[in-house]
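Table S7 (text form). Paired inputs.
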Amino acid sequence: MLITDSEGRFIEFNDAARLMLGYSREEFAKLRFHDIDLDSADEIRERRKRLFESGKASFEAVYRTKQRGSCRVRVFSRTLTAGGRELVHSIWHDIPDPAQAGMEPAEDGAKYRALFEGSPDAIFIADPETGTILDANPAACRLVAREREEIIGLHQSKLHHPRNDQLSRNNFERHVEETSGGGTTHLTRNTIVRPDGTEVPVEILAQTVSINGKKILQGVFRDVTERQRLDEALRTSEAFVKNILETVDEGFIVIDRDYKIVSANRAFLAQVKAPLEEVIGMHCHEVSHRSLKACYERGEDCSVRKTFETGNPHTALHVHYDKNKDPIYTEIKSYPLKDAQGNIVSAIEIINNVTEKKKLEEQLRHSQRMEAIGQLAGGIAHDFNNILTAVTGYGSLMKAKMGRDDPLRDYLDQMLDSAKRAASLTRGLLAFSRKQSISFRPENLNRIIGNVEKFLQRIIGEDINLRVRLAEQDLIVMADSGQIEQVLVNLATNAKDAMPDGGHLTISTDSVELGHDFIKVHGYGQLGSYALIVVSDTGAGIDEKARERIFEPFFTTKDVGKGTGLGLSIVYGIVKQHNGYVTCYSEPGKGTAFRIYLPTVKQQVPRRESDTQPPVKGGKETILIAEDDVTVRALVKEILEQYGYTVIVAVDGEDAINRFAEHQDSINLLILDVIMPKKNGKEVYEAIHKIRPDVEVLFSSGYTADVLSRKGVLEEDRQFIAKPISSMDLLRRVRERLDKRPV
C-alpha cells in the first residue's frame, strides 16, 4: 500500500511495498514512479488520464526491483485530497510470472509448489467447475484458522460469512468467467468467518492457471483488516478536518505555487458569492480582488507571496470584492504547506471578513465624536447662559421702568426676542449634550402624538398630507411629553423642507421587541420591549455621506440662513436621554424614515394637575448669593433688592462659607451657583448645612437639574433654577423656597 502525490513522489508506503521492490526506506523515499515504471510513456500517460478523470483506476504494470530486476503488479488506485493536496492511494498485488514459476509445463510443478507453499499471501486452489477447494497453503490455513484437512473438500462459499453466500457464488462465477482465458480478475472483497466466529475482511485476486495440464482456479486472499482500519481512520480524519473547515466562519482556501485555488470552504464561497466550481482552478486575485492583476502587481502587500518567498506565516489587510463587486474588508493570514522534503508546495490562506468590525469601529468613532461634540456644546451652553441671564435680566428691568409710549421700547423688545431665540438655541445645545432638564413620568405615547397632531399639520402646511397611524394598544413609556413633542416637531420641520413641492408625511407607532439581530446590525442596543415611532416622508432623501453626519450639531444640507443644523441633533439628544435609539433610513429620491425606539414600562399614566403661576411677591428676608460670574451676580442682587430683600454676595465657594459664618443668624436663603472656583455649590451647601440644617437653598446653573440629581445634589427639582434666569421666575422661585420654611 502506497500514497503518492500528483507528481509521483512516494509520500507514504508500508513494509510490504518496500519488500516487494527490495529498496530500503531511505531509497524508497527518494524514488518517483517514473524511476521504477518500465511500461511505455504512452501507457503511463493513459493510466494517469483515467485515474484523474474518474478518481480511480485498476491496471497491471511492470516495475523495476532492486534484486529481481522487475516484478509484475496488479494496481488499484484512487485519488484523494488531504491537507489541500491531491494524492493517490494505491494497492499493489504481486503477480507471479507463469513463465518463471513453471505454471504451464507439467515438469515445473514442483517449482510452482514451492512458490505456493512459501507465499506470504493466503492461496486457495479450487475446481473452476464445482467450486470445491482442492488445496490451501499454510498462509491460507492461518487466515481461516483451520487445518488443511478441514479446508480441502469444502465449497469455497463455506469460507465466507453466511450473509454473503449469494455474493460468494456470484463472485466465484465472475472469477471463472473472467479468468477462463488466463487473465486475472478485478479485485473483489468478502468476509472470512473463523471457527470462533471472528470475522476477517479480505480482498481476493483470482487467476486461472494450468498445473500438469489441468486448469485450476487460484485465489489469492489478503487480510485487509488493518487497511480497512487505516482507511476508516483516514476517512474519519478527512471528514473531521473538512467539518472543521466547513464550520468555521472564516474563509479558508488552499493556493498552489501558480496562485491557483485548489480548495475552498463554505465561508469563502459565501464571502465571494460564487459556487465551488467557479472558484477551483482560478487565480486567487481573480476571485478575491476581481482583478486581472495580482495584488502584489498592484503594489499591495500580498500575504501568500510573502509566505512562498520566506516560508513563514504572514498577515495583511486587503479589500476583496464579491461577485457583485461589493467590497469586503478582509484580514488575510497565510501559512505554508510543505512536502516530506520540506519544500513549500502550497499555502493556506485564511480570510477573516472584518467588514462588520470596520463598521463597528466607525460607529464607535462616530459615537466618540458625538460625545466630544456634546461635551463642547454643553460647555458652550453653560457659559452662554450666563451671558443671556445678564441680557434678559437687565433688559427686563429696563422694560419695567419704561413707559408704554417710550420710543426705545420697540428696540428693547427686539433685543429681548433675540435673547429668547438665543436661549432656545442654548436649550438645543443642552438637549444634544444630554444635559437638558427632563421631567420623566409614565406617558401614553399615542396620546402625546394625538395632542400634537394638529400643531404638526400647521407646521408642514396644506400641500403635505399628514397621516397618523397609531398602534391599537397603549404604549406606555417613561418620558417628558414636552421633549417628545419637540422630537416630532423637529422631524416634521425637516420633512417639510425635504418636500418643497408637497408629499406625504406619515407618523406611525407600534410595539416591538429588540433582539440580538438589531444589536448585531447596529452595534448597540439592549434587549427588551420598546415603543416604536416611525416618521417617514416622500421627500428628496439623504445620501450616505450626509447620513453619517446627520445627528451632528450645526451640520445641515440647507442653504445658508435656512437652518441652524440643530434640529436632528436635538432629536438625538432627547432620544438618548430617554434611554432610546434613533436610526435613519434614506436614499436620494426615495424619501427618509426615522425610527425611534423608546423602552416601554408597565405603569399607569397618572392624572395631570393644572399648572398655575403664583403672583410675583417680594419680601424682607436676607439672601446669600454665591456666583462667580460678576454680571450675573450683580443682576440677581439688583432684582432681589428691588423687591425688598437684603442681599449678601460671595464671589466663590470659600467666600460663600465665610460670609455665611459672619451672618448665619440672619440669612434665610442660599442662592448657589453649582460650578464655582475653590468649592462648588454642593460642597458649599453641605458645609453650611452642618452649621444650619434648616437653611433653604436654591441652586442655579447653566447645566441643569437632571445632571445635579444624578450627582445627588438635589432632593427635588424645585431646588434648582436654570440659566438664563428670568426675573419673574427668579422672584417666584425665591418666594417658594422662603415660604417653605417652618413657621
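Next pair, protein 2 of 2.
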Amino acid sequence: MFWRSVVGKLAVTILLLVSFVLFVLTILLLEFFETFHIAEAEKAMMQTANKVSIMYEQYHHKALIEETVERVKDPDSRVAVVLKDKTVWFSKSQDKKLSKMDFGWFSREAGFSKIVNHNETFKEQVQMPENKERAILVGMRLSNEEGVVYVYQSLDVINQTKAETTKIIFLAAGIAIVLTTIFAFFLSTRITAPLIKMREAALDLARGKFDTKVPILTHDEIGELAIAFNRMGRQLKFNIDALSQEKEQLSSIVNSMADGIMTMNRKGDILVSNPPAERFFLDGQVTHVDRGEGIGRKIPFELNVLLDKIIDGEPEVIREIRVGGRNWVIIMTPLYDRKQVRGAVAVIRDMTEERRLDKLRKDFIANVSHELRTPISLLQGYSEAIVDGIADTKEEKNELAQIIHEESLRMGRLVNELLDIARMESGQIELNISKVKLEEFMERIYKKFQGIAQDNGVKLGISLDFDKAEASFDPDRVEQVFTNLIDNAIRHTGEDGRVSISASSCAGYFEAAVADNGSGIAEEDLPYVFERFYKADKSRTRNLKKKGTGLGLSIAKNIIDAHHGSITVKSELGNGTTFSFRIPYQA
C-alpha cells in the first residue's frame, strides 16, 4: 500500500535519483582519487629522483650522498642508482617487500638505455622479480649522464591511501542517503498532506457532503489548488442545489399533470413516468407489457409501434387507441442527442370521459329531439285537423283539443325537467331547508300515491321506523325524489304487483327506500340508470302507459347530491327493483 501512495512514490523517486547520482559520483571520485594518488606519488618520487641526481652532481663523497638520500626520500620507498658500469646502489627502506634488482633487470624492465641515451623519464607500475609485489617505478638520468636514478614504492601504500579515501567517500554517500531519505519523506509528506486532505474531501463530496472544506496549509501551488478545490465545492453545491430544485419542480409539474408523461430510450425502456401514465398500464390493460416495476420496464406494443415511427424520422406521431374499454390519445415526439434520436417522450391522455360526454351530448340532442318530435307532431296533426274542419262536431273538436292540451302539458313538463336538471348540474339549485316532521311527511306521500296505485292494480305499502321525529331538508325536493321513484315503481309493476315504501333514521341520517316486484333492470344497465334520457327497458317506451321522459332518476340523484346524500339501486331482471337513498338530518 505504501508503494502505491504518492508519499512512497515521491520518496522512492527522490531516493533513487539521489542514489544514482551518488553512485556515479562515487565511481568518478574513486577513479579520480586513484589516479590522483598515483600521480602525486609519481610526482613525489620524481622530485626525490631529481634531488638525488643533483646530489650526485654536486657531491663526490659517497657516504654523504647516501646519508642525504636517506633523509630526503620517503621511508617506505627505495632509491636505486644504476651506473653505466653496471654497478647498482640501493638505499634503505622500511618496506621489506621492496626487493633489490640487478643491472640486467633495470636494463630489461626499466628502460635504462632509453633514459641514459635520450634523457627520458620513466614512470611505470612494475612487478618485483622476487615476491611478485606490484610497485611504482620512476627513473631519471643523472646530470653527469653516467647512470639513472630509480625511485620505486609499493602499491600497497597507494592502496591504503585509496582505501581511506574510499571510506570517506562511502561515509559521505551514506550520510547523504540518510539525509536524503529524511528529506524525501519530509518533503513528500509535506507535499502530499494537502493532497490527502483533498482526497478525503473529494470522497466526502462523492458522498454528498458538499460543505466539506480543505484546510489551506501553504501559499504555493498546492495552497492555490486547495483554494480552487473549495471554490469548486461551493460551486458544485450551488449547482447541485439548483439541479435538485429544478428536478423537484419538474417532478412536481409532471406528477401534478392530469395527462400521463412517459420518456423512453431507443430500445423501448421506460426512463420516467408519472402516476397518470402508470394508470395507463394498470387501467388500460395494454398488451405485451412487461409487468415489472420502476425504471427499465419495456413499453407496451401499442407505444412500440409509435416509437418505431419516431426513430424513422417522424417529427410527431398522434394516435388514439382503445384498450381495456377506455379511449387513450397518445402524442409522441422525439428526444434528440445532438442530431441523433436518443428516445421519445409520450403524452398519454385518457379521453374516455370526453368521449362519453360527447356521446351523451349527441344522445341528449337525439333524445330531446325524439321526445319533442312526438308531441309536436301530435300538436301539428290535431291542430291541422281542427283548422281543416275534419272534426265536424263539437265533441270531436273537444277531444282533439284535449289531446293537444295533454301533449302541450307533456312538452311543458319535459322542458321544465330539462331546465331543472340543467340548473342542478350547473350548481344553481336552491334548497329551502326547513324542519320536517317525518311521519306526517311520509304519510302525505303515501296517501298521494295510494289512489294511483289502486288505479294500476298495485298494492302500495309503507314501513316507518324513526328514532327522531324531525329532520332538516327541503321537503319539496325530497318529495320530488319520492314522486319520481314511486311513479317509476308503479308504472313498471304489473297488476297485482307490490310497491313498498320504507323510511328510517340511523346514525344521523334519514334513510328511505322504494322497492317493487316489477320487471326489474338488467345488470348491465344499472350503472347508467341515473343518466339523462336513459331508459333501461327500451321496448316499454312504446307503451304509452309506461312512457316517461328518462329524466326523473337523474333529477332525483341531483337533489340527493345537493343534500350531501347518496342514492343507490339494486335490481334483478324479472325480480323487481329497490332504490335507496340517505341524507343527513342537518342537510
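The first strand starts at residue 77 and ends at 83.
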